[in-house]
UniProtKB/TrEMBL annotation:
Residues 1-188 are annotated as: Phosphopantothenoylcysteine decarboxylase. Pfam families: DFP (PF04127), Flavoprotein (PF02441). The gene is coaBC. Its cofactor is Mg(2+); FMN. This is Coenzyme A biosynthesis bifunctional protein CoaBC. It comes from Ruegeria alba.
Length: 398
């Protein structure tokens, strides 16, 4: 997908630099040309020889290298690419970029370039969380610098938390997205997410424990593969992803209308935890304690959005994916749910409290398709989203 694209890859000094060797391979496999630049610190972690062997090109290292200046000046070098990628970017390099310093080749290129820049941070968790780094992150984002990662996980320094550099394939996906070259380019995908709030009266409502984390991650992953994403979300705990069209709703009926307005789409992913029932006659005045005893709420059934879209006779998305949150007999219930709703796939998960999945960071899902059930290992919600987005891309392409 990256054929004839040129990437200027600046490798910063950090242990994650070893992953950049794999990144070069992955980029070249996809037809991209890679011009590598090493900072002096990066040379402590990877050798210029291995970098240039993998890139099949000369490595640029020094600002005042006269041969390079004769061959290609740093200004020209900074502008010869379709995208500048810094992976890993260290706290130090982020600080330089924010401050506008240009005292070595990497920072000078970053100051001189007029092409988009994507950075993949990698640092110790405390360094990433430090207010200075977070200030720099916000400023760089405001300056239009794109970010991929960092991910959360075990770190080389023995600590745990955000700070790990994204995996090479995630960086490739971010590069494709930045260049508008992802496998979902030209595809429009709808994602529903979050809980719904069903009003009892103007101040009270019925809700559920969905945080919106999984749906948000799916929308982000789809956008990263180049899809045009319409993200219809109930009142979630997590903010919506960047780069998608966000439609905010409260109730199931509002979500249903927003989904309708978003059609037609190539695929729909229904990750929202939609309330099955609403209060039949929600009061437009606050209910008061009265001598007549306790209020009695009557329920009415909400529209089943997934089922309606799955069973559309005209304009049905080519791929409809539902989620099944179950607390018992997960496989059996989810398999039956797929048939009952008429969707193509069901992403089933066990949300019984012992799993810690609802509201948690990880998910253990089984993907149920027409061909059977596929159990995925327990992994972060972002990783589940990434894998699902890739499957969707493959299916829509095929
Ligand atoms: N869903 C929907 N509209 C609804 C209810 C559910 O679109 N009114 C979608 C969810 O987004 C999810 C799937 O249907 O993709 C499964 O929802 P779930 O509530 O688990 O299934 P139900 O049909 O409600 O089955 P049950 O309550 O028996 O578990």
């Amino acid at each position: 997908m990256l054929a004839s694209r040129r990437i200027l890859l600046i490798i910063g000094g950090g242990i994650a630099a070893y992953k950049s060797l794999d990144l070069i391979r992955r980029l070249r496999e996809r037809g991209a040309a890679v011009t590598p630049v090493l900072t002096r610190a990066a040379e402590e972690f990877v050798t210029p020889l291995s970098v240039s062997a993998l890139a099949g090109e000369k490595v640029y290292r020094e600002l005042f290298d006269l041969t390079d200046e004769a061959e290609m000046g740093h200004i020209q070098l900074s502008r010869s690419a379709d995208l500048v990628v810094v992976a890993p970017v260290t706290a130090d390099l982020m600080g330089k970029m924010t401050a506008g310093l240009a005292n070595d080749l990497a920072s000078t290129l970053l100051m001189a370039t007029d092409t988009p820049v994507l950075i993949a941070p990698a640092m110790n968790v405390r360094m990433w969380q430090h207010p200075a780094t977070q200030r720099n992150r916000a400023q760089l984002a405001a300056d239009g610098i794109r970010f991929v990662g960092p991910n959360e996980g075990d770190m080389a320094c023995g600590e745990f938390g955000p700070g790990r550099m994204s995996e090479p394939l995630e960086i490739v996906a971010a590069i494709e997205a930045a260049l508008g070259d992802g496998p979902l380019k030209g595809k429009r995908v709808l994602v529903t997410s979050g809980p719904t709030h069903e009003p009892i009266d103007p101040v009270r409502y019925i809700a559920n424990r969905s945080s919106g984390a999984q749906g948000t991650a799916v929308a982000r992953a789809l956008a990263a593969l180049g899809a045009e994403v319409v993200f219809v979300t109930g009142p979630a705990d997590v903010p919506p992803p960047e780069g998608v069209e966000v439609v905010r709703v409260q109730s199931a009926r509002e979500m249903d209308a927003a989904v309708d307005a978003a059609l037609p789409v190539d695929a729909g992913v229904f990750a929202a935890a939609v309330a099955d029932w609403r209060v039949a006659s929600a009061s437009d005045r606050k209910l008061k304690k009265s001598r007549d005893g306790l209020p009695v709420l009557e329920f009415a059934e909400n529209p089943d959005i997934l089922k309606r879209v799955s069973q559309m006779e005209q304009g049905r998305p080519a791929l409809v994916v539902g989620f099944a949150a179950e607390t018992n007999d997960v496989l059996e219930n989810a398999t039956a749910k797929r048939l009952r709703k008429g969707c193509d796939w069901i992403v089933a998960n066990d949300v019984s409290p012992a799993t810690g999945i609802m509201g948690g960071r990880e998910n253990a899902v089984t993907l149920i398709t027409g061909e059977g059930a596929e159990e995925w290992p327990r992994m972060g919600k972002d990783a589940v989203a990434d894998r699902l987005a890739r499957r969707i891309a493959e299916t829509l392409a095929g």
